[in-house]
Amino acid sequence: MKTCKKCGETKARSEFYADSHYHDGLKSSCKACSKSASLRWASENPDRTRTNKSAWVAENKDANRSHQRKYRSMHKEVVAKSIANWEANNPEKKEAGRKRWRERNRERYLLACRYAGRSWRVNNRGAVNAKTARRRAVIHFASVAWADGAAVKAFYDEAVRTTIESGIPHQVDHVVPLQSPFVCGLHNEFNLRVITALENQKKHNSVTHLIQRQSRMFA
Q1: Is the residue at 57 inside a domain?
Q2: Quick count: other Cβ atoms within 10 Å of Cβ 182?
Q3: Is the pLDDT score of 128 beyond 80?
Q4: Is 97 helix (H, G, I), strand (E, B) or coil?
Q5: Residue 36: which domain range?
Q6: pLDDT tens-digit profile of 157-197?
Q7: Which residues make Cβ contacts (< 8 Å) with residue 210, sequence separation at least 6?
Q8: What does the alpha-carbon distance between residue 196 and residue 190 come to, in Å, rounded to a whole number?
Q9: DSSP-derived 3-state class of residue 3
Q10: Does any domain span residue 130?
Q11: 42, 19 in Cβ contact below 8 A?
Q12: Cβ neighbours of residue 191 under 8 Å, at least 6 residues apart?
Protein backbone atom coordinates (compact mmCIF):
# COMPACT_ATOMS: atom_id res chain seq x y z
CA MET A 1 0.00 0.00 0.00
CA LYS A 2 1.06 3.60 -0.58
CA THR A 3 -0.38 6.99 0.38
CA CYS A 4 -0.85 9.61 -2.34
CA LYS A 5 0.70 12.98 -1.45
CA LYS A 6 -1.94 14.81 -3.52
CA CYS A 7 -5.27 13.40 -2.35
CA GLY A 8 -3.98 11.76 0.86
CA GLU A 9 -5.67 8.45 0.10
CA THR A 10 -3.93 5.13 0.76
CA LYS A 11 -4.13 2.93 -2.32
CA ALA A 12 -2.64 -0.25 -3.76
CA ARG A 13 0.77 0.10 -5.34
CA SER A 14 -0.78 -0.74 -8.74
CA GLU A 15 -2.62 2.62 -8.54
CA PHE A 16 0.70 4.48 -8.89
CA TYR A 17 2.78 4.96 -12.02
CA ALA A 18 6.32 3.60 -12.06
CA ASP A 19 9.08 6.20 -11.65
CA SER A 20 12.71 5.24 -11.01
CA HIS A 21 13.44 8.68 -9.53
CA TYR A 22 11.67 7.70 -6.29
CA HIS A 23 13.17 5.32 -3.72
CA ASP A 24 10.26 2.88 -3.99
CA GLY A 25 10.11 3.07 -7.79
CA LEU A 26 6.65 4.71 -7.82
CA LYS A 27 5.40 8.26 -8.24
CA SER A 28 4.36 10.11 -5.09
CA SER A 29 0.89 10.89 -6.53
CA CYS A 30 -1.64 8.23 -7.60
CA LYS A 31 -2.70 7.65 -11.20
CA ALA A 32 -5.95 9.59 -10.79
CA CYS A 33 -4.16 12.65 -9.41
CA SER A 34 -1.40 12.40 -12.01
CA LYS A 35 -3.98 12.32 -14.82
CA SER A 36 -5.83 15.31 -13.38
CA ALA A 37 -2.58 17.27 -13.12
CA SER A 38 -1.62 16.40 -16.70
CA LEU A 39 -5.02 17.43 -18.06
CA ARG A 40 -4.92 20.70 -16.12
CA TRP A 41 -1.43 21.51 -17.42
CA ALA A 42 -2.49 20.67 -21.00
CA SER A 43 -5.52 22.97 -20.82
CA GLU A 44 -3.34 25.79 -19.45
CA ASN A 45 -0.58 25.26 -22.05
CA PRO A 46 -2.31 24.29 -25.35
CA ASP A 47 0.51 25.45 -27.64
CA ARG A 48 3.22 23.55 -25.79
CA THR A 49 0.92 20.51 -25.57
CA ARG A 50 0.44 20.46 -29.36
CA THR A 51 4.17 20.93 -29.95
CA ASN A 52 5.14 18.16 -27.53
CA LYS A 53 2.52 15.80 -28.94
CA SER A 54 3.61 16.42 -32.54
CA ALA A 55 7.25 15.84 -31.63
CA TRP A 56 6.41 12.59 -29.81
CA VAL A 57 4.30 11.29 -32.71
CA ALA A 58 7.07 12.08 -35.20
CA GLU A 59 9.62 10.16 -33.12
CA ASN A 60 7.33 7.26 -32.19
CA LYS A 61 5.22 6.54 -35.27
CA ASP A 62 4.90 2.79 -34.69
CA ALA A 63 4.01 3.21 -31.03
CA ASN A 64 1.45 5.88 -31.92
CA ARG A 65 -0.21 3.64 -34.53
CA SER A 66 -0.36 0.79 -32.04
CA HIS A 67 -1.87 3.10 -29.41
CA GLN A 68 -4.46 4.42 -31.87
CA ARG A 69 -5.49 0.90 -32.94
CA LYS A 70 -5.78 -0.22 -29.31
CA TYR A 71 -7.85 2.84 -28.38
CA ARG A 72 -10.21 2.41 -31.34
CA SER A 73 -10.74 -1.28 -30.59
CA MET A 74 -11.50 -0.55 -26.93
CA HIS A 75 -13.76 2.47 -27.54
CA LYS A 76 -15.58 1.66 -30.78
CA GLU A 77 -18.82 3.41 -29.83
CA VAL A 78 -17.03 6.55 -28.64
CA VAL A 79 -14.91 6.72 -31.80
CA ALA A 80 -17.93 6.12 -34.07
CA LYS A 81 -19.91 8.87 -32.33
CA SER A 82 -16.98 11.27 -32.52
CA ILE A 83 -16.52 10.63 -36.25
CA ALA A 84 -20.26 11.03 -36.91
CA ASN A 85 -20.34 14.36 -35.05
CA TRP A 86 -17.29 15.67 -36.90
CA GLU A 87 -18.67 14.66 -40.29
CA ALA A 88 -22.04 16.29 -39.50
CA ASN A 89 -20.30 19.55 -38.56
CA ASN A 90 -17.73 19.47 -41.38
CA PRO A 91 -19.47 18.18 -44.56
CA GLU A 92 -17.15 20.07 -46.92
CA LYS A 93 -13.97 18.82 -45.20
CA LYS A 94 -15.44 15.31 -45.14
CA GLU A 95 -16.04 15.31 -48.90
CA ALA A 96 -12.64 16.89 -49.61
CA GLY A 97 -10.94 14.19 -47.54
CA ARG A 98 -12.78 11.43 -49.35
CA LYS A 99 -11.89 12.96 -52.70
CA ARG A 100 -8.19 13.10 -51.77
CA TRP A 101 -8.32 9.45 -50.65
CA ARG A 102 -9.96 8.37 -53.92
CA GLU A 103 -7.31 10.23 -55.93
CA ARG A 104 -4.42 8.71 -53.93
CA ASN A 105 -5.94 5.21 -53.91
CA ARG A 106 -7.54 5.04 -57.35
CA GLU A 107 -6.95 1.32 -57.86
CA ARG A 108 -8.28 0.36 -54.40
CA TYR A 109 -11.30 2.62 -54.92
CA LEU A 110 -12.19 1.03 -58.25
CA LEU A 111 -11.77 -2.46 -56.83
CA ALA A 112 -14.02 -1.59 -53.89
CA CYS A 113 -16.61 -0.18 -56.27
CA ARG A 114 -16.46 -3.33 -58.36
CA TYR A 115 -17.04 -5.64 -55.39
CA ALA A 116 -19.79 -3.37 -54.06
CA GLY A 117 -21.36 -3.41 -57.51
CA ARG A 118 -21.25 -7.20 -57.58
CA SER A 119 -23.15 -7.35 -54.29
CA TRP A 120 -25.67 -4.79 -55.57
CA ARG A 121 -26.27 -6.79 -58.74
CA VAL A 122 -27.02 -9.92 -56.72
CA ASN A 123 -29.65 -8.05 -54.69
CA ASN A 124 -31.12 -6.06 -57.59
CA ARG A 125 -31.53 -8.53 -60.43
CA GLY A 126 -34.51 -6.66 -61.91
CA ALA A 127 -32.55 -3.44 -62.35
CA VAL A 128 -29.59 -5.40 -63.75
CA ASN A 129 -31.79 -7.10 -66.34
CA ALA A 130 -33.25 -3.75 -67.40
CA LYS A 131 -29.77 -2.25 -67.80
CA THR A 132 -28.60 -5.30 -69.76
CA ALA A 133 -31.58 -4.96 -72.09
CA ARG A 134 -30.75 -1.28 -72.72
CA ARG A 135 -27.14 -2.20 -73.43
CA ARG A 136 -28.18 -4.84 -75.94
CA ALA A 137 -30.43 -2.32 -77.66
CA VAL A 138 -27.57 0.18 -77.90
CA ILE A 139 -25.26 -2.45 -79.43
CA HIS A 140 -28.03 -3.53 -81.80
CA PHE A 141 -28.53 -0.02 -83.17
CA ALA A 142 -24.76 0.58 -83.25
CA SER A 143 -24.13 -2.59 -85.25
CA VAL A 144 -23.49 -2.34 -88.98
CA ALA A 145 -24.22 -4.88 -91.71
CA TRP A 146 -20.64 -4.88 -93.00
CA ALA A 147 -19.07 -5.79 -89.61
CA ASP A 148 -17.12 -9.07 -89.55
CA GLY A 149 -18.92 -11.18 -86.93
CA ALA A 150 -16.01 -13.61 -86.59
CA ALA A 151 -13.54 -10.76 -86.04
CA VAL A 152 -15.81 -9.21 -83.40
CA LYS A 153 -16.16 -12.55 -81.61
CA ALA A 154 -12.37 -12.94 -81.65
CA PHE A 155 -12.00 -9.86 -79.42
CA TYR A 156 -14.33 -11.35 -76.79
CA ASP A 157 -12.50 -14.69 -76.98
CA GLU A 158 -9.22 -12.83 -76.50
CA ALA A 159 -10.59 -11.04 -73.40
CA VAL A 160 -11.60 -14.39 -71.85
CA ARG A 161 -8.25 -15.99 -72.68
CA THR A 162 -6.22 -13.07 -71.32
CA THR A 163 -8.28 -13.03 -68.11
CA ILE A 164 -7.66 -16.73 -67.51
CA GLU A 165 -3.94 -16.58 -68.32
CA SER A 166 -3.12 -13.41 -66.37
CA GLY A 167 -5.61 -13.73 -63.53
CA ILE A 168 -6.50 -10.07 -64.16
CA PRO A 169 -10.04 -9.32 -65.40
CA HIS A 170 -10.05 -8.07 -69.00
CA GLN A 171 -12.92 -6.66 -71.04
CA VAL A 172 -13.70 -5.66 -74.61
CA ASP A 173 -13.79 -1.89 -74.91
CA HIS A 174 -15.29 0.30 -77.63
CA VAL A 175 -12.52 2.77 -78.50
CA VAL A 176 -15.15 5.32 -79.49
CA PRO A 177 -17.95 4.88 -76.91
CA LEU A 178 -21.33 3.69 -78.13
CA GLN A 179 -22.92 6.35 -75.90
CA SER A 180 -21.34 9.76 -75.41
CA PRO A 181 -22.52 13.39 -75.36
CA PHE A 182 -19.93 14.18 -78.06
CA VAL A 183 -19.69 11.21 -80.43
CA CYS A 184 -21.11 7.68 -80.68
CA GLY A 185 -19.05 4.84 -82.13
CA LEU A 186 -20.11 1.69 -83.96
CA HIS A 187 -20.02 -1.94 -82.88
CA ASN A 188 -17.52 -3.46 -85.30
CA GLU A 189 -14.04 -4.97 -85.30
CA PHE A 190 -12.36 -1.61 -86.05
CA ASN A 191 -13.73 -0.02 -82.87
CA LEU A 192 -12.82 -2.79 -80.40
CA ARG A 193 -9.83 -3.49 -78.18
CA VAL A 194 -9.06 -5.68 -75.16
CA ILE A 195 -8.06 -3.83 -71.99
CA THR A 196 -8.15 -4.52 -68.25
CA ALA A 197 -11.45 -4.11 -66.43
CA LEU A 198 -9.96 -1.33 -64.30
CA GLU A 199 -8.85 0.60 -67.39
CA ASN A 200 -12.31 0.18 -68.85
CA GLN A 201 -13.96 1.46 -65.68
CA LYS A 202 -11.64 4.46 -65.59
CA LYS A 203 -12.47 5.32 -69.19
CA HIS A 204 -16.25 4.69 -68.99
CA ASN A 205 -17.84 6.75 -71.83
CA SER A 206 -15.06 9.32 -71.93
CA VAL A 207 -13.53 10.48 -75.21
CA THR A 208 -10.62 12.29 -73.54
CA HIS A 209 -8.13 9.69 -74.81
CA LEU A 210 -9.25 10.37 -78.40
CA ILE A 211 -8.85 14.12 -77.98
CA GLN A 212 -5.37 13.65 -76.50
CA ARG A 213 -4.37 11.32 -79.34
CA GLN A 214 -5.60 13.80 -81.94
CA SER A 215 -3.74 16.64 -80.22
CA ARG A 216 -0.49 14.65 -80.39
CA MET A 217 -1.04 13.90 -84.09
CA PHE A 218 -1.41 17.56 -85.01
CA ALA A 219 1.10 18.94 -82.52
Answers
A1: no
A2: 11
A3: no
A4: helix
A5: 1-44
A6: 999 999 999 888 899 998 888 877 777 888 899 989 999 98
A7: 175, 176
A8: 19
A9: strand
A10: no
A11: no
A12: 174, 175, 176, 185
The pLDDT assigned to 212 comes to 57
Contact 198, 107 (CB under 8 A): yes
Q: How many domains does the chain have?
A: 2
| SS3 (DSSP) at 195 | strand
Helices (H) and strands (E) in the chain, counts: 10, 4
What pLDDT is stored for residue 218 in this prediction?
47
Other Cβ atoms less than 10 A from the Cβ of 159: the count is 22
CB 152 within 8 A of CB 189: yes
Measuring CA to CA, how many Å separate 93 from each of 54, 55, 97, 144? Answer: 22, 25, 6, 50
Among 14-28, 74-88, 91-105, 117-131, name the one with the lowest average pLDDT.
Answer: 117-131
Q: Where are the beta strands (DSSP E) in 62-190?
A: 170-174
Provide mean pLDDT across the span 13-19.
92
| DSSP 8-state symbol, 18 | B
Tell me, yes or no, whether 135 lies in a domain: no
d(CA 159, CA 142): 21
pLDDT of the residue at 127: 82
DSSP state of 178: S
Mean pLDDT to the nearest integer, 135-156: 86
Domain annotation covers residue 129? no
Q: Which of 141, 110, 116 is nearest to 204 (CA)?
A: 110
